[in-house]
Amino acid sequence: MKRISEMDRKTNETDISLKLNIDGIGDYDIDTGVGFFDHMMTHISKHGLFDLDIKCKGDLEVDCHHTIEDIGIVFGKCIKEAIGDKKGIKRYGSAIIPMDETLVLCALDLSGRPYLNFDVELTTDRIGTMDTEMVEEFFRAVSMNAEMNLHIKLLDGKNNHHIVEGIFKAFGNALDQATIVDSRIKGALTTKGVL
To answer: Which helix (H) or strand (E) segment is 18 a member of?
Structure first.
């Protein structure tokens, strides 16, 4: 069974088309109009080994908020749809990723219970044309719509570009671990019977 999800979402603020293949090889085609964010999403694809296509036309004349948050909503929904009933998946994933002077931790649980713990302090308002406060907003939208428990913590680091890049790489790596199918797991990995 192919674990692929494709979704379109159009509002007065954004027009998004997104396709996710959980069992990909890290191919991507991303154009959101926010260059630094495009760069970050390529890291999720490459380090998670997900094929990811994203096209977005957003109201960037206002700012990047609607574009990035709405992509988080659609991406989260696609994750949830692509993994389906969660039978056989490892469910949990974690990564500690170094990026030069930076060290980032990301841990997640595809539990069906959304929660975000974002323990990162960024010291610049913007990287490129992306507001740094949108990093947390993106991952909040992803966690809520994928129904995942997500913890992101900065362990060390000073350079904001390195910190944010480390976060996106760690997330891709952790999500890859959590979505791996293990033949030893019968049904969903829970004593409840369902996730």
So the answer is: strand 14-21
